[in-house]
User: What shape does this take?
Amino acid sequence: MSAISVRGLRKHYGDVRAVDGVDLEVPEGEVFGILGPNGAGKTTTLEIIETLRSPDAGEITVLGLDVREDQRKIREAIGVQLQTTVFFEELTVWETIDLFASFYPRSLPVGRLLELAELQGKARARVNTLSGGQHKRLSIALALVNDLRLVFLDEPTTGLDPQARRHIWEMIGHLKQGGKTVLITTHYIEEAEALCDRVAIMDHGRIIAEGVPGRLVTEQVPESTISFRLSPALAEEKLESLPGVVKAGVEDGTYRVITTAPHETLMEIMALCRREGVEAREVNMKRATLEDVFLKLTGRTIRS
Ligand code: ATP
Assistant: This one.
């Protein structure tokens, strides 16, 4: 049984088609990401699955339960981190977790949750004194309070610096190791690539591509770019005839070779340089990313 199954989901706000026919299937134990720019419809999709908003159309089940008919049962079976979480500022971190835990018949011990969020040192600190990263980690800890198998995280690292973001990635990595199913939304490419078993790319309310991140990139944008400088110079045609090369060019002394077989091409470039007595410097290989997939499919970057 899928943890989450969504068929033909639609949601309009007046004239805005926030979600315009979305299908998703998330098996148990998977970290599944919805990646897309601001306004793509990610939060709306997530919150409908969480039973916090109602769909206009579609068949949506969570752990086999229908979002229209079994809202209470679903809410008892999932852990949710909202995009913005407002805490009682006067409470300490410990008290905040303890308060949330009291909402549920069964919960993890507060000490364990502090450990999961690496907030042991902040147990007695008031929540309004936490840094952005600590605040986010606390909100994720609250989604784990009842220790359920299905966890929803809505843009868990938005606005955080790279170090704080990595900290949260580690936390999500532990959830995965613990066998939880995680549905996460993000507009960070690296986050989707680092965390997700599968990712759905969303734009204007639709899923425009879906799959294992690495495979999605290779299928959609198989070309990599190798760039380098040479002294003395070489004729571009010699590079163009190497195996895998789609295109070769040089601009301001920097050669760029586009290839579908990056490793093979790189070795051939090195061999060619040796034969010709040419020295290669500043060699760089850039593989395509999910950003390139988005660019290819929409003509825009995710952050624009
Ligand atoms: P973000 O990352 O900015 O949260 P998102 O991908 O999560 O973006 P949504 O928040 O689901 O996107 O919004 C999708 C579209 O629906 C946007 O155009 C948004 O302005 C609109 N929208 C979302 N919620 C409402 C609402 N309650 N009332 C009216 N329009 C809404």
Observations:
- The mean pLDDT is 93.
- The chain has two domains: 2-218, 223-287.
- Residues 13, 16, 18, 36, 38-44, 187 surround adenosine-5'-triphosphate (CB under 6 Å).
